[in-house]
## 1
Amino acid sequence: MVNLAKAVVEGDLAATGQALAEGRISAEHARVIARSVAELSDGAEPWVPGAAERALLDQAEQYDPQVLGKIGRRILGVVDPERGDELLGKQLERQDRAAEQDRQLHAIPWGQRRVRITGWFDTEGWETVRAALDPLAAPRPADPDGQPDLRSYARRQADALVELAERSLRTGDLPTQGGERPTLVLTMPYAKLAEQVGTGVLDTGEHLPAATARRMACDARIIPAVLGTESQPLDIGRAARTISGPLRRAVALRDGGCTFPTCDIPPQWCVVHHLVFWADGGPTTLSNSALVCPAHHNTAHHTGWQVRIAEDGLPEWIPPAHIDPQQRPRRHHRHKPSPTPQTE
């Protein structure tokens, strides 16, 4: 407010100050005009700021502040079409270089198991991130009972960012760190993992509940470790993937993607879910495996849905009783049996 007052009283925006005093524009309109004029290229002709102010005042009586701000970003090309676009291009180049240098991303512990993310992106950097997130942030198709995706846009964006990272870790496209592929290391006694009690500890010191650890163990790198009485590592084995390459290819060939009835996520973005959980001693075999996307992997572990292999060797999902009291099996449309040919 002080900066705006200086601009319209002591600065060169007297016409804006008069329009504000007469109530023809709002204070937010005045802020947009002041900002737009202040951000004009240094190479603009001396008469350009006054012309830009007059043009924006005319537009302010027709448009709200948000639209006026978009006009203000291109006002140089409007009032000086001969040189405006060239000057604007050079100005944007300088701003983009400065904005790229100022890229920041901060993760701040916020209590209650939450982390607040804040930071700055340049326009190009953010548009790149947004282009990658948008397909993953689309609302999910309605579930088999017709329930739509009720997540807010902000929630879907956050979920998309996590899924993007999970996919990168799963496909192994990331560079090595300390000679190894990025690996999430979780320490937890097997007895607690099997009984689904207590917590596991990540190598960052953060704790995860046992239920989350069981879900992670479905398609993870398992590194056996021998711990001393005070939990000091005495020996550590070689990493072993629970789902071998040939087995994963066989599961992908059979399932064709996520097996949840309404999901069309392709195989490369799915994890291999143990139908009898790995932590419960479930074998790592084709008959005990099914492809699920990250969202429906959570469904299989935490919402009462169960996955099983039917008599014909294809996976099907059993809904919890509160969704279907008869708990009738459901399967993906790609797995529905072909109709029996009719004879005349």
Note: Confidence is low (pLDDT under 50) at residues 177-182, 234-241, 338-344.
## 2
Amino acid sequence: MSTSFILAGVQMRPELGDVQGNIEATTRWIREAAAAGAKLVVLPEATAAGYMFRDRDEASAYAQSIEDGETIAVWTSLAHELGVHIAGGFIERDDAGIYNSAVLIGPDGVIGRFHKAHLWNVEQQIYDRNRDGFPVFETPLGRIGIGICYDAWFPETFRSVALQGADLLVLPANWVPVPEQPEDGLVMANMMCMTGAHSNNIYVAGISRVGTERDQEFIGSSVIVDPRGWLLAGPASKDREELVLAEVDLIGSREERFSNPFNQPIDDRRPDLYVGDDRRHS
């Protein structure tokens, strides 16, 4: 029986503070992705209520819990109705704090969540830090790890999930312009996703947003990358909402991915030679 399926990335424009509007928008996009045959739908970072919060108090006002958050409830209902998996970003509140989070939901309910590990810029004053590492979730589609946006700038993100047997890293993102980025060609985030996929023999779905919030521009450019590091879909546009679709085979590709006699970036590692953080140059 075939284990391949359609993976959909939703490149959209969430509205800051408009939880109901964003619920309606994500619902439309998830339904459109399912109608296109998708079995996994990836939404951008902070899709539930937007991203450019001024401070922790404002972010906290829009934070939701996994257990009773309205957005999570709607996504869970859609996953069950449509028989799909959904990964998307939201601001989370739990007993330990406020987090920039992403949730993974299947037809039977919430599978797991991830707290952004590498907090970017003023996020360090707004959100609490990830203390749980990089979990990998076993699903009928394959083993799925999660990162969020700036996590793609750290090779440890890709390597951490790969060492746990991940087939795919989903990266809900809000990519912004990088200084001196050429107008033509791949953006930096695309190259990070491609390199991470190639260096770890995993699929990567980097799904970003478009639009502007409080003068911050977001550049879309969503991609789906195969385990060799080549683009399966995208880059999407820098300014339009759109679906990014690709056929992937997380489970069926395992034998091929790990039978290359020349390059095995996981098995060929030399941890005995690597410099650890305890030897960081000052």
Note: The first strand starts at residue 5 and ends at 11.
## 3
Amino acid sequence: MLKRLYLHQFRNYTKAEFTFADGVNWIVGKNGQGKTNLLEAIYLLSTGRSYRTHQLSQLIQEGAPFFFLEAEVEKDGVLQTLKLSFDGKNKTFQHNATNYTQFTPLIGLIPHVLCAPEDLTLVQGAPSFRRKFLNVHLSHLDPLYLRHLVRYHRAMRQRNELLRKKTEVAIEPWEEAMAHSGDYLMKKRDEIIRDLQEPIRKTTSQLSSGSDLVEMSYLSSLPVSSPDQLKEHWRSQRKKELYVGSTLQGPHRDDVSFVLKGLSVRSFASEGQKHSVSAALRLCLWHHLHEVGHDLPIMSVDDFGAHLDRMRQSRFEKALSGLGQIFLTSPEVNPEIFPGSHVFEISDGSEVLKVSSP
């Protein structure tokens, strides 16, 4: 459970501190007051990355030299502290009294599933968005997956550099490293998609009252299944890839497909259906993270109630009940949906963000 969150010079938060409840936490206020920024801070403490920008410098409040976040998390009955700061050049991380130069060892400390309007890119965006959701989810579950992901991309960058220089000298060690790590990535991705196939069918059906039954499958860019086959593939493709200066196939080109009634959700589903699929996917990820990791992940929903029709929204609300600690952003609160929930009303002051809680 995320018990306390302190923000300093983060986005429009000059200085603010929140003490959260263990159930539903409503974050309400007019547009532009910082509701989404709060969820972004939680996501950043969970993954080490923002889900809205690749430039952490954009998270520093205008005119400030740095931002600082501090969270108190109760995990296994023990209160733990996580701190993160960035000054435009250097990131610093601290877990309890231990300092880290990278966030990698801290992934999984705050298991978190975020459902946001940007999730529409999961079903209608480029394959890179779907690879990202696989990478983030698997990294929470398996630290070895994250290490292989880093190693694969590091080796591929070296191979690509040699390809751009039109030389095969010393290329084989990089291909061997890519094959070893790439095989692990592909097998874990295939495994998780298989695990999610039946849950996504059931959840899309539940949210749509039986009208939508979405199939999910893993699309590998390579029809190979072992490190040796991967090495042989890249060796056989060198001539072509020396010409283009880039590795054309591999885990960095994989994709995930969503199919409804035999047709691509990306190309043929309505906007409402796409939002419904992305919401179902996040629910499935929450349950999978809980089943495998045993902790109750945090569930966040940005712009709650804005993108689903009344029937799907009602079923989504029912599915959220009992998920543990939940954060919802909305212009206003509906106390009838989750009775007894805590409400934080946010308004953007000139220096201190005003927060109220009953």
Note: The first helix runs from residue 35 to 47.
